[in-house]
Amino acid sequence: MLINNNEYFSILEEIKSRIKTAQYKAVLGANKELMELYWSIGKIIIDNTKYGTKFVENLSRDIILEFPEIQGFSERNLKYMRKFAELYPDFQKVQQSVALLPWRNNLTLMSKVKDEAVREWYIEKNLENGWNNVVLTHQIETKLYYRQAIAEKTTNYHEILPSPFSELAQETLKNPYVFDFVEKRKGIIERQIENELVANVAKTILELGVGFAFVGNQYHLEISEKDYYIDLLFYNTKLRCYVVIELKNTEFKPEYAGKLNFYLSAVDDMLKHETDNPSIGIMLCKTRDKLTAEYALKDINKPIGVSEYKLSDFVPAEFIDTLPSAEDIERRVKIKFDVEGDNHFREVTKLIDKTTKKLPKK
């Protein structure tokens, strides 16, 4: 449908008026005002979609001519504003939630999270934790919702801890934890993983969640003139308790729960302040059988959660270009095996040797 000049300029003037009203607050960093402005522009575009595909293009051009000093009104961004208003039709709800997030965070949520309920969860957590766009993107890409909100968690928190502390402790637990800054490699042992978690403690705390403060690793306890060492000790300012983390690069075994229970008793007796909540334990294992873990925790008298963790499978970037692609290896292997006689076996062996020599030394 064609739009006449009077109608077009009327729409353009309305948008320009809204921009002028909000621009000073927006320039000064009033994010809520800016998000409400973007939503209102998106709503205007939705209400006038009958004017065809050139409508948004023309709007973008004329708005930029009128406000050359203000960025954010490209044709692409106007289309995002339209999507913004489509996804959140209730303006009152917009004011209370997504309008409080930076525009880049909203763009990330719109492009990466299609399910409305999941998107609402990320919005709530973003507001609660104050994530910037980099952190929000990381949480979405590592599927935090599925690892924390709906993950199958094995704990005895509800049986041991009072409400609502038990619910808060349960909510903080994830399964699995993703330490994607630690490279998985053959023969890696617990202490090596622990050292890399400590060396990257900011990333470790980001994965553990809000409120975690690092106290120490291989934290020394002396009990009956014997030395004991906790793998990782944290204090959670939100839960107001110590968090003892034990790390095993094996499948979960029932005896692990007993040792962690011992450490929690010692921490509660030796470190816990009278105003602190009971210390909680997290046993991180390479794998865990849910039923085995449930039986192991059944008669334990300290709050413990059992989760898996995952390390990175990445190949370092500096080696990517030196390695042949899967298709290249398959093609070359096929050629070698088409050769008559034993020569093909020797050629394939050489190919494998050549490939493995390009891999990084551990």
List the helices and strands and how they pair.
Blueprint: H1 5-27, H2 31-47, H3 54-66, H4 75-87, H5 91-96, H6 103-112, H7 116-129, H8 133-141, H9 144-149, E1 154-155, H10 157-160, H11 165-172, E2 177-183, H12 190-199, H13 201-208, E3 212-223, E4 226-236, E5 241-251, H14 254-270, E6 280-287, H15 290-297, E7 304-312, H16 317-320, H17 326-337, H18 343-357
Parallel strand pairs: 2-7, 5-6, 6-7
Antiparallel strand pairs: 1-7, 3-4, 4-5
Helix pairs in contact: 1-2, 2-4, 6-8, 12-13, 14-15, 17-18
Short recap of the structure:
By secondary structure, the chain is of the alpha/beta class. Helices cover 54% and strands 17% of the residues. It folds into 3 domains: 5-147, no CATH class; 152-312, Trna Endonuclease, Chain: A, domain 1, CATH 3.40.1350.10; 318-357.
Mean pLDDT: 86
CATH class wording of the largest domain: Alpha Beta
* Oligomeric composition of the shown chains: single chain
Domains (count): 3
The end-to-end distance, rounded to whole angstroms, is 66 Å
Care to count the β-strands?
A: 7
The CATH topology annotation of the largest domain reads as Trna Endonuclease, Chain: A, domain 1
The percentage helix is 40-55%
Q: Shape, please?
A: elongated
Q: Mind telling me which CATH architecture of the largest domain this is?
A: 3-Layer(aba) Sandwich
Sequence of secondary-structure elements? HHHHHHHHHEHHEHHEEEHEHEHHH
Radius of gyration over all CA atoms, rounded: 28 Å
| Sheet/helix structural class | alpha/beta
The largest sheet is: 7 strands, mixed
| Distinct helical segment count | 18
